[in-house]
Amino acid sequence: MPKLTLETLGLKVLEKREDRGVREVAKEIGISPATLSRVERGNLPDLETFGKICRWLSVDPGEILGTRTEVGTRPIATAHFRKDVT
Q: pTM value?
């Protein structure tokens, strides 16, 4: 299977689910069967659902989003400043 991306997430879920029912797997993940079905058809999940699916797949969400931090590197702190209202 190609690199896991948001676009291929549904295929990966479908692949892992194999011949198990949508209801059974959705309950295991902690989401509704309708949501699981939508994700498998290629729709993007909300953030909470995305996290649950990543845990179920045993995948780092950062790997899918392309923000995975390499081991041994230190994160860089950033700040966002608001524009003065005047």
A: 0.72
